Amino acid sequence: MKQLWTEKYRPRKVSDYVWRDEDQKSQVETWIKQGSIPHVLLSGSPGVGKTTLAKVLINELNLEAADVMEINASRERGIDTIKNKITNFASTIPFGKFKIVLMDEADYLTPEAQAVMRGVMEAYADNCRFMLTCNYPNKIIPALHSRCQGFHVDKIDATEFTARCATILVEEAVDFDLDTLDSYVVAAYPDLRKCINSLQMASVEGKLMAPRESGSSTADYRIKMVDLFKHGKIKEARTMACSNVRPDEMEDMFRWMYDNLSLWSKSPEGQDRAIVIIRNGLVNHSLVADPEINLSATLVELTTID
Fold first, then answer.
1. Would you state the pLDDT for residue 218?
2. Is residue 87 a contact partner of residue 101, using CB atoms and an 8 Å limit?
3. Contact 140, 147 (CB under 8 A)
4. Where are the alpha helices (DSSP H) in the chain?
5. Partners of 134 in the beta sheet?
6. Of 119, 128, 208, 218, which shows the fewest CB atoms inside 10 Å?
7. Of 231, 107, 251, 112, nearest to 179 (Cα)?
8. Distance, CA of 94 to chain centre
9. Tell me, what's the pLDDT at 229?
């Protein structure tokens, strides 16, 4: 079976990880040197490297495989998971130095489950440490925040993001042109995982296919929308955005607009204006009766920036 590029090129060591904050790197290196970690809460946008950083830590600490439990809280989010599965794991003696529970997407845990986990973290702290990842730290109860050392993982620089994607394509011997790669980058940024997955799906017979050629099975609407914007088909691009975005994706769409200011203007003045437009659109999102009309109006205004 063809290996997923996101796993093939996932960093395994501290030296391979792309750090945004040297203080965070120093802290992680200190933990590895000491051979121990506190409870940790890793927050940040989807695809920026939270789970990767957690796995780098686990790998560098040389823990026994039986001493690591990974749970995706978007699937196992209730009290029963905490009371039974996690408590049973945390309460037993580790094979090595200590155990780790890696809980991805902990912001999906119900408040009741988070409250129960607070007690588990305290009761078994000598044997077991918790590493939580989340996209929205405001959904984590204060009691868990106070028990964890917080790490906010910032998005990777856009230039470095593009360079990382280009390096993977070169390693995989995929022929590509920079304009086509840019369409995939702009559509996914800052979600590196999503971009790498899209590039792998769109790489056919050693060539990166343009969004118009790759078909709906290999390119989501944002990739096609970006390509339309770049080719001056503004009305079609706006129509595609408004007709495809789901109600629960609206806030993520505004965040994506903000993360890709260069799509709206190359000048600092134009980007400053885009920031104001996007912020107004986001504020109106929670006030207007029809969010789709608000999104459409925001896109219209953005695409009139010189």
1. 38
2. no
3. no
4. 5-8, 22-34, 50-60, 79-80, 87-91, 111-123, 142-147, 158-171, 178-188, 192-202, 211-214, 221-230, 234-244, 250-259, 268-285, 291-302
5. 43
6. 119
7. 231
8. 31
9. 85
pLDDT attached to residue 27: 93
Spell out, as residue ranges, where the chain has pLDDT lower than 50.
1, 215-219
Amino acid in the structure at residue 267? S
DSSP 205: T
* Angle at which helices 250-259 and 291-302 cross, to 10°: 10
Alpha carbon 129 to chain centroid distance?
23
What pLDDT, on the 0 to 100 scale, is given for residue 212? 66
Asked if the bond preceding 46 is cis, omega within 30° of 0, the reply is no
Contact 256, 282 (CB under 8 A): no
Stated pTM of the model: 0.79
pLDDT of 237: 86
For residue 18, the tally of other CB atoms under 10 A from its CB is 16
- Nearest in space to 107 (alpha carbons), one of 158, 68, 70, 144: 144
Longest dimension (CA), the chain: 64
Measured CA to CA, the distance from residue 145 to residue 70 in angstroms comes to 20
Q: Which residue in this structure is represented by tokens 């391979």?
A: 16
Do 105 and 72 touch, CB atoms closer than 8 A? yes
Exposed e or buried b per residue across 22-54, where buried means at least 16 C-beta atoms within 10 angstroms of its C-beta: eebeeebeebbeeeebebbbbbbbebbbbbbbb
CA distance 290 to 281: 12
The amino acid at residue 295 is L
* Domain at 5-152: CATH architecture: 3-Layer(aba) Sandwich (3.40)
Structural domain boundaries in the chain: 5-152, 157-232, 245-306
